[in-house]
Please model this.
Amino acid sequence: MLRNLESKLTDLVEGTFGRVFRSEVRPIEISRKLVKEMDAHRTVSVSRTYVPNEYAVWLSPEDRARYEGAEQEIIGELAGYLLEHARKERLTLVSRPRIEFQTDDRLSLGEFGIQARLVRAEQDAAGTERPPAQGDHGHTMIYSTAERLREPVEEAGGRRAKRAIVLAEGKRFAVAPAGASIGRSRECDIVLGDANVSRRHAEVRPGRTSEATWTIEDLGSTNGVRVNGRAAAGAYPLSHGDRIELGTADLMFELE
Model:
């Protein structure tokens, strides 16, 4: 099903609408980055994994102009692509994906931004599990088809800042700008099932110096914290690709 949707999106460029979309930003490129943002913003609850249901796609004025006349059809295909991905991965959406195209004069031809948000319905059905509030809403991921720009950009002021990701137990957890706690407790931001992990084991925090943009600190755990095989004491600096050990649990730290 996903392959069929990819083919339809490609056809919108190379087939009937080929003359309309002579832009560097192709619908198939947007679809793949939308899926990336959906996966990066997974929020694990008690029994479900929630993902954003609203997406704003920011285009340069030149790219946006080339979508005129076929924008709604493209949006419908993109929403269907996200819906099928969520079904395949058994992810929970609180509504059908809603996608909106916007124009940003700061973007150059071939660059586009995506902001993902989890927005609850106004009223939840009685007795149903409410999706948790999701952090990191204030950032837009900017992508470039020319490999010019791959960093998150803060909407207010446009200051660039790399987003921290923790890979654990086969999942990707986006770390909020203020940091994230890790442990077995359901109150932690990143919940692990390993019995050798303490209830509140460690915390990843933004660093206070330019050399240490992110750090990890032991919260008094039983089995300690190790980074790349070394015992981590105090606010230990983290770099992209670092391997983190919490007891016998293996994690990976990434920046994107």
User: Anything to note?
Assistant: The chain is about 20% helix and 30% strand. The first strand starts at residue 43 and ends at 44. Helices lie at 2-14, 27-40, 61-66, 71-88.
